């Protein structure tokens, strides 16, 4: 299967514009330590981590139809496993982050087997129950602080670099790598034969099955993959915080509700949607975070308004009006 060459001025202009936007964005993010202050760098680190969480939830729900409200299970597991490996295993930051992601993906296999015995709304509720089980379980582990949590020794963060400025730069580039890798991973998957299968499932699961797609196996693979990458982002988030507690690690609001908001307003089932949603979410948070409950109400109003205008989200609307794909993944027969 081959891609048809784009012809005409409009497609060429869109392609050129996409390359310019992507290149400028990557250049600005890659050089952020040179122009951003400490507060801006920390905000960018958090935003890049949320981008990774949003891309993983979108891959799970937007392309395989698995609407999970329990992704905080893997954020929390990733954070706790990272702390355990760093504190008790004496591992450095990078090896601990990599190993906790793999370990969480392995744990996701039996939990996924349980969750996949449920369908639809029951699956969503089941993933939330699994996350609560992990939260209650971690609260009983005394070596990791029990219900009150545990702090990361300063020496662990210092293993990245000697000076404070160098450590912050190293942490920023870890966040940059996680955020960019999440987008690249989803883009690469959607351009592969698995991407064709996922797109078929998104459009019609029954039709996908009739042409030979093993929908259950593919969904399970994506579930495990997103669990591992979600844990990677979770481990980094709590490295940044230097402290972890069960309530913070397995918070449905922080790690699932906000991520769903990001994907829904940006555009579910698109790569660009989570990017747009992350930018809007953090812009809104910077402006309205001090408004208390009004801030949460405003988020709800925005989400409902976007859905009423176009349930495909902001990028879905832009795409339908212009035909523009910032990160094209669609294939057509020659």
Task: Give the secondary structure arrangement, pairings included.
Blueprint: H1 9-30, H2 32-35, H3 38-64, H4 72-87, H5 93-115, H6 121-138, E1 150-151, H7 154-158, H8 164-191, H9 193-203, H10 205-210, H11 215-241, E2 243-244, H12 246-249, H13 252-266, H14 272-288, H15 293-309, H16 313-322
Antiparallel strand pairs: 1-2
Helix pairs in contact: 3-8, 3-11, 3-13, 3-14, 4-5, 4-6, 4-11, 5-11, 8-9, 8-11, 13-14, 13-16, 14-16
What does this protein structure show overall?
The protein is mainly alpha-helical and about 325 residues long. It has a domain of about 210 residues. Strands 1-2 form a two-stranded antiparallel ribbon. The radius of gyration is 20 Å and the shape is globular. The relative contact order is 0.17.
Summary of the model, kept short:
Helix 8 packs across helix 9. The protein is built from 16 helices and 2 strands. With 334 residues, the chain is mostly helical.
Oligomerization status of the protein chains? single chain
Q: CA-to-CA gap between the ends?
A: 7 Å
Shape: globular
Largest sheet: 2 strands, antiparallel
- SSE order, as H and E? HHHHHHEHHHHHEHHHHH
Discrete helix count: 16
Number of strands: 2
- Going across the biggest sheet, name each strand in turn: 1-2
Radius of gyration: 20 Å
Instruction: Note the beta-strand portion.
Output: under 5%
- Structural class by secondary-structure content: mainly alpha
**Low-pLDDT regions:** 1-7
- The overall average pLDDT, rounded, is 89
Helical fraction equals: over 70%
Keywords: Cell membrane, Membrane, Transmembrane, Transmembrane helix
InterPro entries: ABC_transp_permease (IPR001851), LivM-like (IPR043428)
Membrane topology: Multi-pass membrane protein
Subcellular location: Cell membrane
């Amino acid at each position: 299967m081959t891609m048809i060459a784009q012809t005409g001025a409009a497609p060429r202009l869109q392609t050129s514009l996409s390359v310019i936007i992507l290149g400028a964005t990557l250049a600005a993010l890659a050089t952020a330590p040179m122009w951003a202050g400490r507060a801006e760098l920390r905000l960018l680190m958090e935003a890049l981590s949320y981008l990774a969480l949003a891309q993983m939830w979108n891959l799970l729900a937007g392309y395989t139809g698995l609407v999970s409200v329990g992704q905080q299970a893997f954020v929390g597991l990733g954070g706790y496993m990272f702390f355990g490996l760093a504190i008790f295993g004496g591992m450095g930051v990078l090896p601990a982050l990599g190993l906790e992601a793999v370990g969480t993906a392995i744990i996701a296999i039996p939990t996924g087997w349980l969750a996949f015995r449920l369908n639809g709304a029951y699956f969503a509720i089941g993933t939330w129950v699994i996350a609560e089980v992990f939260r209650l379980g971690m609260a009983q582990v005394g070596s990791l602080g029990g219900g009150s949590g545990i702090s990361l020794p300063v020496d662990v963060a210092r293993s990245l670099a000697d000076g404070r400025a160098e450590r912050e730069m190293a942490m920023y580039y870890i966040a940059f790598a996680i955020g960019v890798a999440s987008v690249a991973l989803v883009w690469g998957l959607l351009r592969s034969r698995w991407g064709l299968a996922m797109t078929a499932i998104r459009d019609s699961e029954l039709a996908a099955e009739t042409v030979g797609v093993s929908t259950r196996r593919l969904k399970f693979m994506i579930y495990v993959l997103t669990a591992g990458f979600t844990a990677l982002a979770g481990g980094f988030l709590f490295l940044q915080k230097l402290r972890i507690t069960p309530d913070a690690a397995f918070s449905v609001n922080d790690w699932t509700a906000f991520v769903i908001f990001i994907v829904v307003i940006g555009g579910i089932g698109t790569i660009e949607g989570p990017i747009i949603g992350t930018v809007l979410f953090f812009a809104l948070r910077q402006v309205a975070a001090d408004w208390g409950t009004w801030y949460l109400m405003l988020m709800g109003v925005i989400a409902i308004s976007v859905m009423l205008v176009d349930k495909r989200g902001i990028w879905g609307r832009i795409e339908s009006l212009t035909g523009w794909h910032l990160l094209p993944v669609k294939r057509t027969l020659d």
